[in-house]
Amino acid sequence: MDLTLLMYLVPSLVMFGCGVFGFITRKNMIAMLISLELMLNSVDINFVVFNRFLYPEGSEGMFFTLFAIAIAAAETAVAIALIINVYRAVKNVDINQLTKLKF
User: In the 3-class helix/strand/coil scheme, how is the chain assigned residue by residue?
Assistant: First the structure.
């Protein structure tokens, strides 16, 4: 592997690891959403890097990354709407309080 490829993959791996750690350890839904977005962004970095190094004349990785960013933005909007509705019902965004939503 090329040294410049590792210079992109190591920060991406660190970002993904921080995202997994944050998603597993946090109890706040906003923090979990931020951790999930961190994981998605690290995957987007990998798409661009591997496209650049494996197929430098192509741009498929760039387009796939743009599509993934658009999907992540839509997913974030839906997740924030759900979190707002949970907050209105429970007055807390702690995942341990979600049992109060059962009818």
Answer: CCHHHHHHHHHHHHHHHHHHHHHHHCCEHHHHHHHHHHHHHHHHHHHHHHHHHHCCCCCHHHHHHHHHHHHHHHHHHHHHHHHHHHHHHHCCCEHHHHHHHCC
Q: What is the CATH number of the domain that holds 89?
A: 1.10.287.3510
Stated pTM of the model: 0.83
Q: Identify the CA nearest to 69 among candidates 48, 40, 49, 46.
A: 40
Question: What is the span of the domain harbouring residue 24?
Answer: 3-101
Residue pLDDT, tens place only, 24-37: 999 999 999 999 99
